[in-house]
């Protein structure tokens, strides 16, 4: 693809990326100045022409400011032409533009018609160039900033003899695939310096070109040899002058004093909208003078050829500042009807106007015709240009002899080469990032020749893998993203023939980044770059298949990219080895632990393609890395060796004895090097456990000494307090014992069981946690001799520890999990007839039924709390799963005892507790009582306050009801349960408004009602408002349903509920976790007028509530409990006799409570009760009592209000002995405050004792 020597601001960006600026006189050879930059894409050192060069053009400097009267010319133009021929030549330019625009029926003829004189003088008389070598380095540059008038430049290039613009190209103006597009494009038309079009861009590029000329001249010119000596010319219009970018660039040009920049301002006063007076009236002259430019005004730009020549001479005489030549022209000059109007700006003249213009200018020729005398006159530029280049080449040869180093640098710049090792000069990631962006822009602008790509690609490859670790993280994602952008830009900028070999080099690296980069944006950017290049190639091997695999969405997941996308791509030739190298050398040692683990797994996924390579190269390479001093490297290598060995085993590849020996020695070597120390020790312990698991699954040959050493390693990891290390050790132990000790037992297996059982009593909680998990994964052969001791010990470990200092919820969770695993191991093994042993077999199931199930039911009731919250929920969740598993075990065993599968039994809600019923089920391991307790325990968790637990419980119940292979019998009201819990997926059991209305229906069944209520009150009376509203709403809706039942009979829903509430109060007496929310639930129900209209049953229920309150509120310090109890007493005191008197008397005793807030709350309730129920005291005393209550400050000193309290007691007729008894009880409680070790409880007590 064509390129030019245009040195733009993009190259300056690349310069900054490569090195710091240094002056041309710098003596520091390690720092590169801007002048040494490898600014690409120049040619012109070689030429076949040897014509004589023009005379020297160095002129003295003018230091005075621009004057109103132009100074006399300092030098004459080298070439002058007869005026008539000039006019003919100018008209040739005009009509070539008119004819091309007319043929295309599109374009801008006005500017070429007006600017033809200045264009002719520049290209025919002033500029130095070689038409046969558009890339000659020391040529003068021309930029048509007003790019819409590009036919001016195409006509000039055609006349000057450039091969890029022939007559057919002019006729193809603005046509698809032509070399004459609607705006100048340097990558399409050799001879066009820069692509222009957006207004203001061209003049900004011209400033960049002039800047580079001045810089290179300062860097390489010597007193006896001016090797860099060319001018930059530009034509800009009113549109460019209106753009901010043009003003900014011209400001820089004035600041830098770019004396070899000469800009022609086409001052035609016409824009596409009409006269510029409507929008642009500033004084351009004065603005540019203020910017530091020399300004000249050519008043007649239409025919004032000598005036234009004189202006150019004057401009060249000014060396210390750029020059703006304001040329007043007539847009569309020569058109009799459209000249000087906006209609000629951006549309063809039309056939009639073209003919009129021909007549007006006296042009008798056919379209696109160039008169012979004009053609002959312009033909001299080919030999003259070749001579100019030959003279310069000769001068450069002499320069090269004298100044070899400078000549070599300049030569590399001209040829677009980068200095050797230039990328090493990049000081940091910012420079790499900027360099990549600059390379991309150079490629897209056509300034990076395809011949330079082989030197650039290695740098781009390095940038694709740029990742510098800094402490616990790394930098470089922005560099990798920019490098992918460079590859994308290459695909768009170069022809597919140029990119064929380059893509073969880049593709493996792009796909390595696309599959294995840590950052999703880098993966997607690399894949997009590959896709762009494949699309341009059209037939790249497997390109479409890879693009379809590595698409935008599939690469969004890192796991998917590593384990699926990369594995799919690796099957194609040329990608396996680069992928393996990327994983081994960049990802196995990555700073991110997750990436290292994933990389090890990804490496093993590639083994299937070439096991021999992995066995002899990869494993051999990785083993030494396991002892690396770098934590990340040895951790990743340890994981990778284990994963690869396992993958080789799965591919049925047999490792040699030597490799097996080396692999077996990895862990002992790590331990010998004491690499478990420090922070990295925890990471290495997990890796070592996974390594042992992999070699165990691979059945790697191990010496006995190594086996025992590895077992000790696992035991050490089991004792570690980190749960992740324990879990990986447990997984490894499961396979290790089975692979190396079961088949060849040498007394190790029996000792293992005993050892782990002993450790269950260890005071170190970490040891207990690990031991319970270890027992759970031991194989049947190890457990067979001590199975009863194991089960009983694990059952005891599931219970809450007696000593508070020994309590550990994680140990109990692990005990539940271990217990379940042991039950599964024992029962699954015994299903095999070869090892079934009669009575011993039955004893296992009896033990599961009697002890294990009982322990799990207790675990479901574990509500332990610590500073982390309800940690008992972890135990409850594990126990729910355990109950499910044990239920299947028992039911499956029962089904094996009968010829037919037992059918479901629906029975009455009363539990069969009679001896006859028990005898009928004597041979069944899973009986009706167990079924009822099971469902009840699950339902209780399904209505409690934790969303996660409710969902887990509901799903367990759903699986039990609809298990495909095991039928669970004896479930009471199975049909109703199946209606409540349908066999549907994705039901939102964690949503309170969905689950509560369903499970609350079970309150009408006595076998479930108490379990449901004991869980429901926790939600109803809890602190979470949304949960409380959902549960109480479901409960009220349930109570409002009227069925065909006696409201005062035993079948009443309210009656059943009140009995169940009294049961809960009695069952959980003094247990504030349940009692407080239950009391709040009673308060809410009382406020909704529930329980107050049951006639005969109401006094009985209220009496039970009062009995419970007398126990719960006595010496209580819990404000929430006291407030709720006082409110309940208020409700009961407001109903009819005889129960109200008792409640009112109890309420009055709180007027003497030690907490001021409680005294005030009870006084408020007493006041409301007296207003609502006047039967509590004589009518003549009510007013007095209300007055005392209202006027007494109950929050004041308790002794100060003693008189009012006694007076109120007398009015009510309350025995003051009750008051004295309450006071004494309170005093005794203060003297006997229990000592607590819970700092949170102590703080709560402190706050509570303050009364606030």
Automatic annotation (TrEMBL):
Signal peptide: none annotated. SUPFAM superfamilies: ARM repeat, Thiamin diphosphate-binding fold (THDP-binding). It comes from Xanthoceras sorbifolium. The keyword GTP-binding does not apply. Residues 933-1121 form the Tubulin-folding cofactor D C-terminal domain. This is Transketolase. It comes from the Eukaryota. Keywords: Chaperone, Metal-binding, Thiamine pyrophosphate, Transferase. Residues 1226-1236 have a biased composition (Basic and acidic residues). Residues 88-419 form the Transketolase N-terminal domain. Its cofactor is thiamine diphosphate. Residues 428-544 form the Tubulin-folding cofactor D ARM repeats domain.
